[in-house]
Amino acid sequence: MCELSVYMVAGGKKELVMESVVRIVVMDGRILFEGILGGSMEVDGKLKEVNILSQEVLIEA
After folding, report:
1. What is the spatial distance between Cα 21 and Cα 35, in angstroms, rounded to a whole number?
2. pTM of the prediction?
3. If DSSP codes are grouped into helix, strand and coil, which group holds residue 11?
4. How far is the CA of 2 from the CAs of 8, 12, 35, 51, 53, in angstroms?
5. CA distances from 24 to 4, 11, 12, 13 (A)
6. N or C end: fewer C-beta atoms under 10 angstroms in the chain?
7. Cα-flanking dihedrals φ and ψ of residue 2, to 5°?
8. Domain-wise residue ranges, the chain
9. Sign of the Cα pseudo-torsion (38, 29, 59, 9, in order)
10. The predicted structure's pLDDT at residue 60
């Protein structure tokens, strides 16, 4: 399975937001992440990059 780690990028720094993400929903300035175990999180930001090879999602603050 391809779970993703989500990072917030701001001021040249990359901070882990959530691990084991399996679903991403972009909603008018907010992004919803759902984890493999059913947990979820919403953040403000802009989807910058999804890299399946490195299993990373970058969100711009």
Report:
1. 4
2. 0.92
3. coil
4. 19, 26, 11, 11, 9
5. 10, 24, 23, 22
6. N
7. -110, 85
8. 4-60
9. negative
10. 96
Comparing CA positions, the residue from 9, 3, 13, 59 lying closest to residue 32 is: 59
SS (H, E, C) the chain: CCCEEEEEEECCEEEEEEEEEEEEEEECCEEEEEECCCCEEEEECEEEEEECCCCEEEEEC
2-59 confidence digits (pLDDT tens):
899 999 999 999 999 999 999 999 998 899 999 999 999 999 999 999 999 999 999 9
CA 32, distance to chain mean position in Å, is: 8
Place of tokens 């930001």: 45
